[in-house]
Amino acid sequence: MWKAKHFGPYEFDGVSREGLSMPGTGEKNFSPEMARKLDVYHEALSAYLGYDICIHVHKNGGWAIKGHSDTSQHYKGLAADIHATNKKTGARVSLVDMYIVAEKLNLFGGIGVYDWGLHLDDREARGARWDKTRIRVVKSLAITEMVQDVA
Q1: Rounded distance, CA 80 to CA 121, Å?
Q2: pTM, full prediction
């Protein structure tokens, strides 16, 4: 039974090999536990920022049958590719803010940072982190935190 507050199961529907939407596949194949964790993330990010947000699941960014790495958590219904916007203005939420909240929650086994947003997944092994951005967001955050720890 689908119980996510901020997401409908259709947001996690897959895309066929021909690129066509596959209605109903999100509800059938996407992990309800992962949807619950995304709800927690949504509320935490909104609280951290101090304003209402929308989290957008990318096309083929929920459950998938193609288009990701061979060992992708998307094929298991355990991953979401997302970005967030300010609900009032439509402005994109920064990758830094999105990453900080995802990391501090400690809910996700995998967190990937891309120029378009975040990949969050519920893999069993914790601590998988990668940064595919042009500016290397995670590395710059780590350096900033080290400087703050020393100060």
Answers
A1: 6
A2: 0.89
